[in-house]
Amino acid sequence: MTGVPPGEPMTVTAGPAGTAAACAAEARGVAEPPPKGGHGEAGLLLQVRGLSTDFAMKKGTVHAVIDVSFSVREGEVLAIVGESGSGKSVAALSVLGLLQPPGRCVAGEVLYKGRDLLKLPKGEMRDIRGNHISMIFQEPMTSLNPVFTIEDQLTESIRLHLKLDRRAAVKRAVEMLRLVGIPSPEKRIKDYPHQMSGGMRQRVMTAMALSCDPDLLIADEPTTALDVTIQAQILALISDLRDKIGMAVILITHDLGVVAETADRVIVMYCGQVVEEATTEQLFERPLHPYTLGLLRSIPTMEDTEATEPLYMIRGMVPNPLHLPRGCAFAPRCDRRRARCAAEQPALIEVEGRKLRCFLFEPGCNQAATALSPESAQAGGAVRRADSEVAP
Amino acid sequence: MTEPLLQLRHLSKFFVVERSLLGRTISVLKAVDDLSFDIMPGETFGLVGESGCGKTTVGKMLVNLYRPTAGRILYQGTDLTGLPARERRRYCRDIQLIFQDPYASLNPRMTVGDIVAEPIRVNRLLPRDKVDDRVGYLFNAVGLSANYRNRFPHEFSGGQRQRVGIARALAMEPKLIVCDEPVSALDVSVQAQVLNLLAELSVQFGLTYLFIAHGLNVVKHVSDRVGVMYLGRLVEVAPKRDLYRNPLHPYTKALLSAIPVTNPAQRRTRILLEGDVSSPIDPAPGCRFAGRCYAKTGCAGCACDTQLPELVEVSPGHFVACYLHPAVG
To answer: Which of A229, A312, A334 to mutate to test the interface with B (most CBs of B within 10 A)?
Structure first.
């Protein structure tokens, strides 16, 4: 056992944390996990290819995640955006192997540093979770066990994953609580979850997720249940930790504002499929997919506008997952749909360095020249307006 | 000058947290503390603040779900707080409430048609044979097909349920609707639909709204005037434009800067508030925000820590309660 490989992201805190990580690396000798901080091809940390997850229900099969592919580089923040039911959380749970029946991964592979997580035996997967990839859940109120103290819950995972004795684990837990900004952590660690506010609990969850120096953090709506000022604190904390320990983050959210402020790259999901993938700059400067565009336009702006025009609405509702439309899933709600959209599934194609699932952007489809139906003229206008804003 | 539809005067609601053996009050939670503002007919007054600041308590006092500890609620000049219960109830018809959670606020065992018809039946607003027509009319008004009336709440999506809740509030032909976070449980695309519906209805039925929310962008979209609450106190009240262009209270500034904007080029330096909202139980004397304030004058024993600032009108229509403003103090 060589101890800590070079590039080991163990510099959270000096001293105890370093030894903790070293102990952990030593202890991992048996299972032979991939070396932490080892550089795969071009710093690729996680590669999800063609992931599909089904839920077999009494009334039929729900295809919650359909052929989803994405990758995360080291130190990158990737946002997965979508409304409820778009499959973003299920995709994350599938990656971590945390799906509950009737959910089941039916296809695809999840390559973490070259190893397919979906094929790992349970024990090795448990070692990956926590040590290499950890997750923050949406509900800080329900994700903590109400009958154990913060100390019990934090040290459990530290002792399990880092193989520390009780004393060292407590020390490390206190360090972690300090890192996430909990005042007087030596005292607060004795608290039960109900003695803490929502923001505090979310910090404890974050501390727990970070306590084993993961390379990848999956944060599922980490701020949805929190107030805006606390949300700002947690987001700043996540960005800060990314910078400090070089951890990659998959941020799952429905809030496009949060995405704009924290993410490097974005994938937009609708009905289990990726409909658009782009860098954050690309996506917000020039959203291309009609769904992305609609989402962005339906948010009330904070800009200094005089008139209160009605908000843009994406009409209709998300389709029933048991009866997805035959063609493009967004077609029934789309302003720019054409006959083909209802009949055929568009493929995910690459356009200008980004990915799109829409017939409008297929080569040969001259979208500017395409005669827009009267009702779609509005959406077309918005695209042009967005363009003109980019180049003043 | 038109009369305000609603005037709140020094309205307070305290909850007793702990009593001694002899029934004496030991500690008090000041949910709403000395709140005063007016709502003009036809306007939308936005009330913002973080969870626990008392904004929902204000709404509940208006619809008679809570009895105020002190202060008065004047509705068209009549003091509602002084009325005997039976008379107070008559005014309930004029002030209705739309709840935050469309999943919890509809009885799962009643059809949505019955849910909307119930207030009409209970209050005998219409002869029995007319109720059905009225329900159909209300369903259309909120953009639901009248054919859905025999379905149960679980058959509807969140946005549709919220529409049912709105139809139920409209059934009483109210003048003022208290909207308690009506869209915070909804998806973005559905949120826009409900906000637009509320705007249409206010024109169609001549409604006035008290719009309670924590999302400042939503409040900005719907409101004419906005009040910002912090720990039971109003810290700033201003016409929408004034508040968003020229926020005066440090808390309002922090709140505005905390909203993520959908423009990565605009990633700003945020004002990050330290810590959490402190407890409203037995608050310390002085400004409620003093513990988290980044702008207060540092002196020990200064006014910020010892005396509650009053809400003062510093420019027409713009009120602020902060000693940093020269007019306050």
So the answer is: A229
